[in-house]
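#struct-pred

JT: dropping the chains for the assembly here, can someone run the whole complex?
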Amino acid sequence: MPSNTAHQAYLNTRVSIMATRLLAPDQFASIAELELAELAERFGLGAAVDAQPDRRRRSRAVEQALIRTLLGELTVLTRPMRTAERALVSAWGRKYALFNLKALIRGKLYDLDQEDIQAHLYELPAQQGLAEEALLRAENVLELLRALEGGPYALIARQAREVYEQRREPSDLEATLDQRYYAGLAHQVAHFYDGNLRPLQVLVGALLDRVGLMWLLRARFAFALSPSESYFRLVPSLRLLHRERLLGLVNLESTERVLEALPEPLAGLLAGTADPQEIQRRLAQYFVVEARQVLARSHSAVARALAYLMLREIDLMTLFALIQRRLLDLAIAPADLALTADGRGTP
Amino acid sequence: MSLTPPAMRHVRLLVLTEDLPRAALALAETERFHPDERPPEAAQLSRAPVHAYRQTYQQAQARLTKIGRLIPPSSQAEIDEIRVVDLEELSEVNDWLGRIWHEASRYEEELRRLDDEEHFVSEQEAALGNFAELKIDLSLLRNKTRFLDFYVGIVPRENLRQLEGATALANHLLYPYMLRGEQAHVVIVGPRGEREAQLSSVLAAAGYQGLPIPAGLERDPQEMAQTLADRRRAIGEERKAMHGRLADWAAGIADRLLLAAKTLHLAEPLVALDASIRSAGHLAHLAGWVPARAIHDLEGRLHAALRGCFHLDSRKPRSEERALVPSVAVRNRLLQPFDLLVKQYGIPQYGEIDPTPLFAVSFLIMFGAMFGDVGQGAVIAGLAWLLRRRLGPLYRFGVMAGLSSVLFGFLFGSVFGDEHLLPALWMSPLHDPILMLQLALGWGIGFIVLACLLAIYNRWAVAHYTDAVFGHHGLVNLVFYLAMLWGGFGLASAGAFGWLPLVLVVLSLAALAVRSWRELEAPTGERVLVVFIETLETVIGYVSNTLSFLRVAAFSLNHVALSIAIFTLADMMGGVGEFTTIVLGNVFVIVLEGGIVLIQVMRLQYYEGFSRYFSGSGRAFAPLRLRRRLAAPQAS
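RK: done, full complex below.
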């Protein structure tokens, strides 16, 4: 086992080398001008684009290839990590398995054919997957969740099953899955006690702040849920929107009041807008800045690795949005695509 | 026995699509057809006609497996009649299994409900124990009051903190009064009013389960404990009755379930062929690898099954396909355990020499020489025989290793380490250690030369001619090694290396260096360095690999030395102690030294042998089979 310094140095070097793959902010405009073939060639997606017969399948193949790239890099980075570090980064990457789980649940709810469900599943590496083959053969949602209770997703699955058994509401089930995912991330960060703790709190806290605020606004003012129901769906952040602050915010009666009551820098960032899309866009920008700072300045190798993966995901999803724009001939300005393609925030 | 795997042929079979189930069964019965999953060259053959069949089969098989979880099979059954299963029949079986699984899952859910209820009773018992300590009349909590809202129940521990916040927002107080396993027992109290409904929704999302406050709590807690114990007993009886009903139901469907299992077994070969079948209209194409000597039988079987309605052609494997051709494993029962050990390293590539016979012979010689003892060898062989059921085919490996040890024990005259009980047929290793070392060195040289010859043959056989000459352990390496041995022998016996061996050594090393130089694409400095190190490594490698075989003699000497040490210690003890020391010493030698010798021999085989001549990159011959035995449910 290498010493801690050697271990950190190795991982930091790997992250620094990989970080050269991230798109610089000024690169986006030039990439947005590229045609589909040029985009595919430049980012090694030629096989994914050419091998498929129709646009839908091409789009799916490109998305699959980009996710494979991301998870491949995750595997490379987690290999030299220690147990707690690997657990945290793997927990973040599990969002793709949860996408699959949601697709499986929806498929079972609407009684879709196995092949239709399979078409909506991402092909994931074995260590990050759900053993989808076995789950596909479950005949209903409860059986599916029961089958999942035997593996690493036991906690999420058990909670989801209990919620589903009591309420039979797919939206509650999905909300529970999301909540357990983010709560799991926060829980993993709590396992650190050394120099990694602070940068991880900053990074994962920024993520939870972003997700928490959007969920809060949606639950309170779009779904008109009560303060207690809204609060129960949230995950307290490790940074700005911690438990006490969320308890105060959910009791407020309008979006404007919530935004006014936010701490800095969120209050300044969101000043002058109450439009949910604009709020989402600004929060995404805020998160990118925070993640870039962790990547550039932190001494914690695991925090840098996670920041890199989060930024890389945003880049790859932006690229996917650009390719989709070309594939589907969408008349959307590249700038608008960049604003929304902020990574797969919620699984 | 041939040392190379049997010759294989690539077979292309054209049949009518409707005859596919029949063709699959016929191929499975021969157990000589290894499917080739590459798409056919003809672009028109693009449909996958068995796709729906496979989907139906997989769903039916999954259902059968799930039913089997609830009704475990109790015996083995045989497939007595081999018949074709078409999609219609398969779908019927699948639908029936679907209905049965639906019923079975009701039993399963019911049993789970009883488990949950039992768990709930446990929680209630724990709560009762806790309430008994309190000095208030908790029976008042059973009914909501005009102004106050009470909840007493359990929530998953991980939701506790979040629920605390949520209840506070609904103007309620949450008090966790006990933590048990993954559950937290809580009391929630708050004013009645509009927020009550909000709280109910949160509690449902949090997985809250209310614990009913038992009536009569203000009376004797023993009485309440008895009520809960009665409930637990009732659950146990309910479960027993449920198992009884389940057994009756299972017995009623056992025959049909067995039939369904047989149908799925008969459908399995066609499903296994799915990836290898392509069709165009009524014509289906499938391809595979068949041992050359089995082609005639295969054709005959297809004739009988398809009434001549097929076209089969076969050809030799092309050179570019060599890596795809499967190798048929050794079928000799004695060699079977050695084959398992060879497979730990890899499968012989088609055309390569199968190392199993050589591995078996050299393994037994080396193990016997390093651990030669009549008594200890007999113990190993006897234990392997006694544990044959547990060890499976590997028991023969233990028996043969033990017998080899016995044989060398007779040669060395050693019985449980005692060299006075039996006259040595040859001599004790310690009698002439130098001779033993010389023999081991000679064995090692023979082993390495044979390994190089095999490496040359194997590469030649798969048309890697340059590698056969210049590659690692190829012809040039062998010339170098033999020349070095020749020179070394001259140096030891006559004091001079000799000019001819020297010329051969220099020329062969130069040839290797030139090859390495030409293959490298790097700056000149790096090339010089790499070529120098590689050449040096060749020289050092062969010398050290040859000396590595000295361990064969070293361990045979070590074995005698250990035995002497044990007997010396035993002599010092006297009486019962002497006997105990000899027994324990022998156990120590058998376990520890036996284990070490086993590892050393494997190391010599894998590193000095296999790494030279055996690529291990082949594919195992896995023919289509029809499994005739299956697990059967309990019949009525």
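JT: nice. The first helix of chain A runs from residue 4 to 19. The mean pLDDT of chain A is 81.
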